[in-house]
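pasting for the record
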Amino acid sequence: MGLLASSRGIRILLGCLLFIVPLVFFTDLTRNPYYTQIALFNVLVSLLWIGWLLHGFRAGQWCWRTTAVDHPLAVLLLVALLSLGWSWGGHPAMRTPIANEGLRNTLFLWLNWALVFWFVVQGLPEGWLRWSWRLIEWVAVLAAGYGVLQSLGIEPIWPQGLNPYGTRPVSTFGNPTFLGSTLAMVLPWLCARWLLAVPGWRRWGLGLMMGGCFAGLLVTLTRSSWTGAAVGVGWVAWAWWRSVKPSLWWRRFLWLGGVALLLTWFWPRSAGQGYHPTVRERLQEVAQVAHGTYGAWHQRLLIWRCGWHMVQERPLLGKGWGCFELFYPFYQGQYLDNPLFQGFRTHANNAHNLILEWWAQTGTLGLGIWCWLMLTVLIAGRNTAQRLPGEASLLAHGWLGGMLAMLVDNLLNVSLFFSVPALVFWWTAGSLFVSARDRLKTRCWSRSAPLAASVAGVLIFFFIWQGASDSWQPAGASNRRCLSIPSPKERSGHYPLSSFLYSSRRFLVQYKHQG
């Protein structure tokens, strides 16, 4: 059952979701531009679901296509909520911040993960899949081009350069790692399309799009995304090798690999002051791990040690879904006297490792269900890709390669827990399953069910809209509030306060020892 395939409004909503939201980032205009982007994203997803549910009500039935992913995804959402409730009951003094942080992150799982995946499978009208991916392709190309300009010292939008990460470009994503993850997911899909394109202007156009995305990936200087992209494109190469003559395979990939190596080796140094290594120097930095402190590694090592302590303390259900950042300050104190860690940020919003992310927050139970979900996605996705005929099979392998790229990337990254990379990942997963929608079983209910669901959708929409209003406050007002005694919900105010208290304790201990 399609969602009003002739409706211009639905197409506009989808266009805003896939094209406008990833390219609009209100840097320096609101207290937290991530919140603004997520709020817009959540409102659009809610509107799409409300429209789909109301369409089912008018049609007199509500039909649901079942996939192998439905059960593990639903169970994961329930276990995340269970772990949050267990944490709320076990920490009476922190119930307000646990509820605030945990429910916010649980809402992210529902809207940015589950409802995105299920909308592609259930609500995306027939024939709109390729159109949606044209939007994603152009978002990747435009964002990559903007990132390349920023790396060259050209800022065409804001009155001054945006350089919170040195000369690594933030583009419209606010963080070079999020841009890198998105490009790593799109590159395998573009590679599959390029391999299937007939010689001529179409192949040259796809080659230029791939080159632009690859250049944007290079300037992010995100090595985990480079690794993920290599795995994803390698998966497409393997699928192509199985379906064509070896001679044709070698010609195509020798040409593709040669261009990639030339760009990697000769890409110029980024413009600007401060940290601006070349791509080669960025790769060579890894050797610093053996010769002292290296921030990119030892900062993660500090976070992983704290995360492992959370696992040891609560091995079954963890510290509560969405509460990693909330509890992290209580575990890092024992390491701050170590000279190896003293120069690092005393802040961690995520575990920077997918496995530890779920293990620390939802325990062994949650980690097991997460592994069940990912294995189901990958195995069922591979089976779907292998069953599809001809060109459709390689395109499906392009989507599968993009998901592999994201999972490999997030073994050292956090991008799957932010709106735009998560959108692309779950849109990719949904696309893989809906490409064989004729094989999916469908169940239908009477109109009473969609009526109740429509009411729930409206309530969710207004709940999100109310919560989003806080994200539009000017940055100055929020900063002034944070410098006062922090409220129980304001975690950003607790970090400077806890750092001050910890420094005061160290001063008193040292004074007593010397006196």
